[in-house]
């Protein structure tokens, strides 16, 4: 038996061995249903990317399944209070005046001293916010009464009472110290917090849904509510936006001072508050178009949302083992080619690159199947594979994206052309083409036609002007938008907020192993009494997995929304947040998240639809069995998991774009095999962001990697925007320079600190840069606050300093 384990005695070289299935890893007996990564004919996922999932799904994810009995408890608290005042009618039968009167009574109940009575009143208000479901017969009816009741509650001023109670619970030191001492925290430790957060989440989630049938007064209530949530200086949230208060809860939880905080609900409310106050992806695009118009920039070349939605998913590269399974004759062709391979083993045109060999080995060491067709390798010539007529490739009529060129790219091209043809350079001059041949003139003309100036470039140049001329530059007019207010609110503690979010993301990631020092994110899902039957254990297992998925969904959406809004507001706000994410190891964390069977994660069925809210409160519940739990829902994929994956890929793109040192981090962390596995998911948007990440590092992966992954290279060419003069596919670019992470990040950090200091740190202004008042009248007219002891001893001062000293008026006048 040879060293490679080939018992048949047939000579098989290393390259062929890499293409054979590995029996030790179980690839011969792979179950095609369970391991969908090896299948290239998986169906396209009919997934529509949006700000949020459907209304019912977003509501159901607020509650864990262990909270199910509390629906009845909320109803009971409401009905006991309601029956004492209205005994002969239902809530849905009352008129508007009676509705308002009862809402005011419940609001008064929130201000009593007794904790138990306050909780009952809060539960009754929560039942109203849940749509008084006992009197409804369908989900649509529940939705109608939810909207009606929530607008009513806001109109009578419930929000301020809720925030006051929430602040009390956050600062409740007795509850915090009790939770810290407990060995196991359960749902019971966070009852008051959960009720308050539930009401506030239902308010935000319901009111942000626009409905053309809304009354005019409802629209004004919505705008007032939006302003209260996002306004800096609002008396409701300690003079800060609600997002800052919620971020404070996140850091307090991660520090271990408040382990009973229901973190899933806090993160969901934080996400929806940011989405409601700042706006979603459609609003971001409209703001961007408006901002470009204000700055005099040309319009965007295309609507990115529409282009992405119209793209079709590409078939992922088939692995060699799958081809051999489908066509056994290929194996004979591989073996017969051994002598030819031995002859062609030394390629005189191939440079000896040790890193290329390492990359090849890395692909195999990561238990990944090589993703190349045998036809793509020069040394393998198998017989042609017959394809049915329906599988013929249809080439697109054009590329989906208009190409772009930066000013820097034009400068680099001209400089290299001048030094090549004339032997001198002109610095930043992009107009002088004297002495250059005609083809270079045409190239420059083409480049300038596709030149794209971003808002960020203008912001950077404007900031440079402010730094160079602090006296003559004048005061900067800062628009106090919701994004600006939020940035000012989180600026002092932004690094701690980012670390806290990434800590929770790490704890919720399916690839992370349980450690003793990791934070417990299951405080608001574990019941007081642990399950005793197999069915209860299965249900709790589903609940825990679902709970973690929802946390990942919320954090990924929060980070992406903040990055996009900060980038549009000011590039250095974005860079500040992005740099702290990088310093907190966000890049390896996201790669670790994707280092799993991503197809299994996206098709996971951690949900029990019959006990989801609002379905469970308006329908008779069938009896749950172990078989029904195991079977799950008949859905093709899990919306929230695919949404999370796309968000994390977009975050990774934003962190690494135009950052050479961070791109090299992707290479150093061996991200290429991990990202290639994500291409197995047949969803166009996800594939696009995976291909973008592969494109930026392709030039550093070596010639052998590019040669072995031609299908991926073709997909990049077809789907990713082209940057003219970007030598991404060959590695001859000027950017293929040595990796100096520290210098790049330090330079960027210095720029960010100068920006933050100039715009936000008014206490450390250099007195030399302050304007001098030369007018005698205005200087003498300024009011000077004198200390009390000076005023008491004023007569003494006059006598000592003025009257007792002789004044030589002649000398003074001269």
From TrEMBL:
Biased composition (Acidic residues): 354-368
Record keywords, A-Z: Cytoplasm, Phosphoprotein
Region (Disordered): 1-43, 345-382
Family matches, as Pfam families: DUF3402 (PF11882), N1221 (PF07923)
Compositionally skewed regions (Basic and acidic residues) per UniProt: 24-37
Transmembrane stretches, start-end: none
BP-aspect Gene Ontology terms: cytoskeleton organization
Main location per the UniProt record: cytoplasm
Localization per record: Cytoplasm
SMART domains per the UniProt record, alphabetical: DUF3402, N1221
Keyword Cytoplasm appears in the UniProt entry: yes
Keyword Cytoplasm listed: yes
A GO-annotated cellular component: cytosol
Protein origin, superkingdom: Eukaryota
Role according to the record: Plays a role in the regulation of cell morphology and cytoskeletal organization. Required in the cortical actin filament dynamics and cell shape. Part of the striatin-interacting phosphatase and kinase (STRIPAK) complexes. STRIPAK complexes have critical roles in protein (de)phosphorylation and are regulators of multiple signaling pathways including Hippo, MAPK, nuclear receptor and cytoskeleton remodeling. Different types of STRIPAK complexes are involved in a variety of biological processes such as cell growth, differentiation, apoptosis, metabolism and immune regulation.
Similarity remark: Belongs to the STRIP family.
Protein name (Swiss-Prot/TrEMBL): Striatin interacting protein 1
Source organism: Gasterosteus aculeatus aculeatus (three-spined stickleback)
